[in-house]
Amino acid sequence: KAGVTQTPRYLIKTRGQQVTLSCSPISGHRSVSWYQQTPGQGLQFLFEYFSETQRNKGNFPGRFSGRQFSNSRSEMNVSTLELGDSALYLCASRGAGGRDTQYFGPGTRLTVL
Amino acid sequence: AQTVTQSQPEMSVQEAETVTLSCTYDTSESDYYLFWYKQPPSRQMILVIRQEAYKQQNATENRFSVNFQKAAKSFSLKISDSQLGDAAMYFCAYRSAMDSSYKLIFGSGTRLLVRP
């Protein structure tokens, strides 16, 4: 089975722009979660989508949004980028069972100039 | 709110030796899951081991084992026969079993260096 894939792997944007990151989960997985990883704040939960519905959202401003499509692929969008949004954005997918393990993708490295 | 603390920013171990990484957590819940994830320099997070709080038996995966002390809220990872490939950031994580969503709360991580 192919793992979780994320595109693009690297991205450079300037302040004020918006960005869309994409995540394709493992085949058959219906849950996709997003995390932000920075040196200062560490790994922080952004949100989880399950069957196209947002199940939970972390403590991030409304500039961070996401969605999930019927094929379980997910996108996250960050509008009006700030320097502090520079981070590694990790996507993770899992199956439908509550005890299922979450598998992570390689991440998208976003740099905001 | 739950918190996870890893008090060792960096640890070093000689190849073939044993090392223990520490993790403590704070929660008022009785049912939860604990995880250790490994993040090598390539950045892809890999699950090393998981523990379910209602299970008293410590989880083991080959050279990796945990010491789960529920009353003390401690969850340490022991790596035996350390190998060069074990060098990575290790993150301890908590997940509530009461939450229908899958939200992991991570510690700040421990960088493990393996000396040849």
Description:
The complex is a heterodimer of chains A (about 110) and B (about 120). Chain A has strands spanning about 5, 10-15, 20-25, 30-40, 40-50, 55, 65-70, 75-80, 85-95, 105, 110. Chain A has about 110 residues and is mainly beta. In chain A, a hairpin with a 3-residue loop joins strand 4 and strand 5. Chain B is an all-beta fold. Chain B has no helices and twelve strands. The N and C termini of chain B lie far apart (about 40 Å). Classes of the chains: A mainly beta (about 110), B mainly beta (about 120). The interface of A and B includes residues 31, 35, 44, 103 and 105 of A.
The average pLDDT of chain A is 93
- Percent helix of chain B, as a range, is under 10%
* Global outline of chain A: globular
The biggest sheet of chain B amounts to: 6 strands, mixed
> Which residues of chain B form runs of ≥5 with pLDDT under 50?
none
* Helical content class of chain A: under 10%
Question: Main interface pair?
Answer: A-B, 25 and 23 residues
Number of strands of chain A: 11
Radius of gyration based on Cα positions of chain A: 13 Å
Largest β sheet strand count, sense and barrel closure of chain A: 7 strands, mixed
* Structure class of chain B: mainly beta
